[in-house]
């Protein structure tokens, strides 16, 4: 975790994200944000700060997502004979499931050029298709993206894949799961003043430190060892060899 920004009681992520971006050094970084953060002002802020973006697009940007869907549907129907779309396929097995992912990344086509005036830095478009099989059942998901990156499908795929595991997946790869199950964040009764924000920062800092430790054991076990033994605490915190 590099930073955090609390949302106001009458606000949401859309207003909090620009404030968070101001706290970070974005030069040379690739910023990935889910569909709620797909906002023209946020894209402009990222480019102005020297970064690049890969933004998920959904129905909150209806005209844009319809244009993306139409473009990729046409390319699929023509088996990508037209255009200059890069493609990449990956496959992964684990946790009782098999997941295949198909990534498509292309320079901005002429049909989407009118969107450039609103989306600062817009250079490429992307599509990610995931097909997951678990317990004999198959599910699929299609997501669309806009990006300021050049047309490099491997980099695009890395950005898309890198966004989701720490945030959304189950088990100890999920930040939400770790904070809830291991650190009991949802059960916390801290409410007064800046207490909730301060302790949220400390929990995320602790998770970041523990994940850097390469010794055997789960995050839960490492946390207990650090609490029970100061030498273990120093070791996990990287204060000793």
UniProtKB/TrEMBL annotation:
Domain Transposase IS4-like: 8-206
Pfam families membership: DDE_Tnp_1
Example GO BP: DNA transposition
Molecular function, one GO term: DNA binding
NCBIfam families: transpos_ISAs1
Protein name per the record: Transposase DDE domain protein
Species whose genome carries this gene: Pirellulimonas nuda
């Amino acid at each position: 975790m590099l930073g955090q920004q609390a949302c106001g009681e009458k606000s949401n992520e859309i207003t909090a994200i620009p404030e968070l971006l101001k706290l970070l050094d974005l030069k040379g970084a690739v910023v990935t944000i889910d569909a709620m953060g797909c906002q023209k002002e946020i894209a402009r802020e990222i480019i102005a700060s020297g970064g690049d973006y890969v933004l998920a697009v959904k129905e909150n940007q209806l005209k844009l997502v319809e244009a993306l869907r139409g473009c990729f549907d046409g390319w699929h129907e023509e088996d990508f004979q037209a255009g200059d779309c890069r493609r990449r396929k990956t496959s992964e097995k684990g946790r009782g499931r098999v997941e295949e992912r198909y990534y498509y990344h292309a320079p901005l086509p002429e049909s989407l050029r009118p969107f450039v005036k609103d989306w600062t830095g817009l250079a490429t478009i992307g599509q990610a298709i995931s097909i997951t099989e678990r317990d004999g059942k198959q599910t699929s998901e299609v997501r669309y993206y806009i990006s300021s990156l050049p047309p490099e499908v491997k980099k695009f795929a890395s950005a898309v894949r890198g966004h989701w595991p720490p945030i959304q997946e189950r088990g100890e790869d999920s930040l939400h799961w770790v904070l809830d199950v291991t650190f009991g964040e949802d059960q916390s009764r801290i409410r007064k003043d800046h207490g909730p924000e301060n302790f949220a920062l400390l929990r995320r800092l602790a998770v970041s430190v523990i994940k850097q430790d390469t010794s055997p054991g789960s995050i839960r076990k490492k946390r207990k060892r650090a609490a029970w033994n100061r030498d273990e605490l120093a070791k996990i915190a990287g204060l000793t060899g």
